[in-house]
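Thread title: Can someone regenerate the structure for this chain?

I was given the following input by a collaborator and told the matching structure tokens would be attached. They weren't. Posting the sequence so someone can regenerate them.
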Amino acid sequence: MNILIVDDKDDARYLLTALLEGHGHRVTATENGEQALAAARRERPDLIISDILMPVMDGFRLCQEIRRDGALKDTRFVFYTATYTQEEDARFAAKIGADDFIQKPAEPDVFMARIEAAVDATAQGVDVRTPETDDEVEVLRLYSERLVAKLEKRSLDLQEELARRQKAEESLRRHAKRLEVLRSVDIAILEARSPTAIAEIALEAMESILMVERASVVSFDLAPGQGTVLAVRSAVPTTMVEGDTLPITTFGDLGGLEQGHVQRVDDLSTQGELAAEDRQLLEAGIRSIAVVPLRARGELIGCLNLGFASPNEMTDEAIQAAAELANQVAIGMRQAELRQEVERHAEALESNVHQLSRALSQTVHALAAAAEVRDPYTAGHQRRVTELAVAIASTLGLSPHRIEGLRVAGLMHDIGKLAVPSELLSKPTRLTDVEYRLIRSHPETACDILGTVDFPWPIPEIVIQHHERLDGSGYPNGLRGDEILLEARILAVSDVVEAMASHRPYRPARGIDEAIAEIRDGAGTRYDETVVDACVDLLESGRFAFTESG
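Best answer:
Regenerated them for you:
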């Protein structure tokens, strides 16, 4: 059977043509009613399948013209549309002589059943539907009603879409602001010297992210079950001050906090019997509260407490923002403790050269561990990169002094990731441009951190250059050739090989063979050819193999 398709969408014409030809029909496809009318007068189709909303001549007008044409008036006519989908549309289509009215999208078997029914009706000589009225004024009135209704619906749809987009844009702005705040908090935390200083930074950040009337940070000592208030910010009267020691049960269920669950009360005024602390909050004008656990490596070390003047303020978005900040605070507090411990070691060993060297080593490992605590998926990465880099340097004949400097740089080459929000480091999906730029800033952040230490080697320079490439395609400064230190070129090759050989949250391990193929492909362009040759020789000869992460 000869079928004429009328649709202004290329993909719709393609799909219908393929479907109908697959069922043995001959198909002609046109883009609008004017083309279809000319084709129909030329080829006399058995069946016309038409969309409605099209340029030049729409489907309703085409149906009228077909029914008015003496030679074509007995051609069976079916509408197939996604725009005119109300019952009134189907009734109007019937009034002007359409034989069937099918809504898009229809399942292929359902669509073909309707079409085959039309084909069978034609084969059996069943008359086509005749228009119910010849009054042009009446037809125009009905057509105008359908068009106005459609425009009104389209207007409402556009308004809803605009509101949705505005809401999405506002959410994106809030997310971007939160990322900006969290990044600034990370940098500030790196400079903080104590858990109390970190708590103050956290509360200042929380005021800029959420409209809180009262917030506090408490550290926990689980053995005696006591919590110590590190910092308090409050726009309402409060009896809690820094240094107060309270039972942990004051802040919520210990089991829930240990499991990482945020505990909240959406409206204190609707609760039954309240604890003394909660009564004081309600009397001070606090209606809703939340307790966000501070956990580092699965260990509960404290909580972030929030109070709001209105009920139901702790939305899912607010919980996410508070949880992100709490994660940073917990890591920062643990890092501050590590820093203080390292500093105590350094002070105690200051008078002895051997002990100073040992303190430096402890500092390096503590900072390396602090970076890896942010990203459990790459735990051991810095150590493994360092092992390979030292092996390459030894093969190339570098002096023991330069090799030691390379070892220190390798152990800390990703320390800058402390300034990257931890959820980005373990994100299993594609990063946005903003998120990718944040991660790419880690070499500069590492350089800033390490630049404050008087190393006997160019550690900051090595670390900031470890993502540079010989052809200038690297970052952050696009250095070329000999502008890149040899140690940084060694570290770059080691970093690529270890990263490809290891699992990441966004992909499985690719293996040593693919890693070797990558550095061989880039030898002399992206990577130093001498370094690549030494690395490949070590791996293929079996003289070097990565140890397990730990």
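The first strand starts at residue 2 and ends at 6.
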